[in-house]
Design goal:
The structure holds two protein chains of two kinds. By secondary structure, chain A is an alpha/beta fold. Chain A folds into two domains: 121 residues, Glutathione S-transferase Yfyf (Class Pi), Chain A, domain 2 (Up-down Bundle); 149 residues, Rossmann fold. In chain A, the strands form two sheets. Chain A has a four-stranded parallel beta sheet with strand order 2-1-3-4, with helices on both faces. Chain A has a four-stranded parallel beta sheet with strand order 6-5-7-8, sandwiched between helices. The radius of gyration of chain A is 19 Å and the shape is globular. Chain A starts with 8 loop residues before the first strand and ends in a 17-residue tail after the last helix. Chain B is mostly helical. Chain B has two domains: 100 residues, Orthogonal Bundle (Fumarate Reductase Iron-sulfur Protein, Chain B, domain 2); 62 residues, no CATH class. Chain B is built from ten helices and no strands. The chains are: A alpha/beta, B mainly alpha.
């Protein structure tokens, strides 16, 4: 154990979508956690979590095996891990939980891990950025760091599913009336806009996006229409990059498939906080979101009350 | 104006053939991650809460009922089995703690084992064995995106370390998962040029 510094330290579990498709989230998280005095350590050798809906649907033992391999890296290093993805959180947290409870599963997984000289011991803890922001940094500190309040910006939230559900097992928040994610987002000064389908799934999970993208996008479209029915929003905020992909790229896909155009800027909560903490959008590449590249557009700087970069 | 007799769809559905009933199916589901399936009393809270059921013919309650009747083939071969997004809304609301989401995932495990797997799903699984990631860093443009965000072109995960996917392949081979998804590493996987 490294006790040289008293700063809290977490292995930064990146997963796939953050580092490979939306790296602006990875950079924004580094800025935010650094501002808060929390270390994010590179998790060398980590793989796919693996995708809970996909792998968990194929073979529970192999799903738990690949997740456990990632957990052993954190166990060996002696720090808990944190992730900014609801999917990664679901796989790693659930596997960690199930492997501690289910001896049969644990034995099967450890037989697989023995093949590569690893063993799941059950000594690490899995957290989401939300857990660290809310439980370790704390609301007071988050508010103190806000130097660019989003006053007057209308914000719709998409909390997603896997950080807080199943509620009885995860014990994070009331999944019918969640407040933690909202409190964090409201710390930025943006105005919370309630809409009917806020707690509905984005449609991407459970291997549905891979199986039938049109069905997946029908979920997304319903959410967008629900936001518009509530008076619209200047930004949609989510704690999950897969949801973000679905809400961001999904607008381009919906336009192609359904012929309906939506113009929502979508941010990960790490990005919203980075901006609220006074970082510039170019510091982490907010404009690199895939919808902007596809549509050859930029974030709606004016609506987001952000100073636009001179030129892209 | 329809008469009440027109409202039932019972006549349209074929009767259950008791010769096709597989009672081991319930045990398989219980063993594969859905231990509470027999607590279901068919209230339908799951389907009433289900955003997939609102737009497709995916019916959680119906699948669970059929599974409890032992209609294995019918359940595992139905395409709608794959419309659950695992949002866990049903699980959070189920008054019997059936954990319908886990039951559906367990049934999917049985389906895959019996060869019912979509090609796109196989491809995603293969990517994890090839690259260590379901969504790999497989184009220069993705690295360029990273640099635009002020990050190094390769993240410190399986994308910069071929040993990661190698370890996963070893475990997949040991468990037989490679065969399950039709993965073969002969000819040996070409190390993709990442830069």
């Amino acid at each position: 154990m490294n006790n040289l510094s008293k700063r809290p330290a977490y292995y930064h579990f990146l997963g796939c979508i953050i580092p490979h498709r939306y790296p602006s989230i990875e950079k924004a998280a580094k800025l935010v956690f650094n501002d808060l005095g929390i270390d994010l350590l590179d998790m060398v050798g980590a793989s796919c979590c693996p995708a809970p809906g996909v792998f968990g649907s194929f073979d529970r033992v192999m799903w738990a095996t690949i997740a456990a391999r990632n957990l052993t890296i954190a166990e060996q290093g002696g720090h808990p891990l944190t992730t900014g993805c609801n999917g990664c959180f679901a796989s790693l947290w659930d596997a960690n939980h199930e492997l501690k409870e289910d001896e049969e599963l644990r034995a099967a997984v450890n037989r697989n891990l023995a093949e590569i000289g690893r063993e799941f011991k059950g000594t690490t803890e899995v957290t989401h950025y939300i857990d660290v922001l809310y439980g370790v940094a704390g609301m007071q500190k988050l508010k103190e760091h806000v130097t660019h309040p989003f006053t007057g910006v209308r914000m719709a939230l998409h909390p997603g599913c896997h950080w807080m559900r199943p509620a009885l097992v995860k014990k994070k928040d009331n999944s019918e009336r969640p407040h933690i994610f909202r409190e964090i987002c409201e710390a930025t000064g943006a105005k919370y806009v309630h809409y009917k389908d806020e707690l509905m799934c984005c449609g991407a999970g459970g291997a549905v996006r891979t199986a039938d993208v049109k069905i997946a996008l029908e979920f997304t479209k319903q959410k967008f229409d629900s936001i518009l029915a509530a008076g619209g929003a200047d930004v949609i905020v989510t704690p999950c990059p897969f949801c973000l992909l679905q809400l961001d790229m999904g607008q381009v896909e919906i336009q192609k498939i359904f012929g309906v155009e939506y113009k929502f800027d979508v941010m990960h909560v790490a990005e919203l906080l980075a901006l609220a903490f006074g970082h510039q959008p170019e510091e982490f590449g907010l404009a690199s979101h895939l919808q902007y590249a596809q549509r050859k557009t930029e974030p709606n700087w004016q609506r987001l009350k952000l100073r636009a970069k001179a030129t892209a | 104006m329809p008469r009440w007799t027109d409202l039932t769809v019972a006549e349209e559905k074929p009767p259950v053939d008791v010769d096709t009933v597989d009672l081991d199916f319930i045990q398989m589901i219980k063993k594969t991650g859905g231990p509470n399936i027999q607590s279901c009393y068919q209230c339908g809270t799951c389907s009433g809460s289900c955003p997939a059921g609102a737009r497709t013919n995916y019916l959680v309650r119906g699948i669970i009922r059929k599974a409890l009747l032992g209609l294995k083939k019918e359940v595992i071969s139905a395409p709608e089995l794959w419309y659950c997004t695992t949002c866990y809304m049903c699980t959070d609301r189920c008054p019997q703690d059936v954990k319908p989401t886990d039951v559906i995932k367990a049934i999917r495990n049985v389906a895959v084992e019996e060869g019912y797997m979509l090609k796109p799903h196989q491809d995603v699984a293969k990517k994890v064995l090839e690259a260590g990631h379901a969504v790999p860093l497989d184009k220069d443009t993705w690295s360029a995106l990273r640099q635009k965000s002020g990050l190094e072109p390769l993240p410190p995960n399986g994308s910069s370390n071929p040993k990661v996917a190698e370890e996963i392949r070893k475990m997949a081979k040991k468990s037989g998962f490679d065969k399950l998804i039709g993965y073969s590493d002969t000819p040996p996987p070409a190390e993709k040029k990442e830069k």
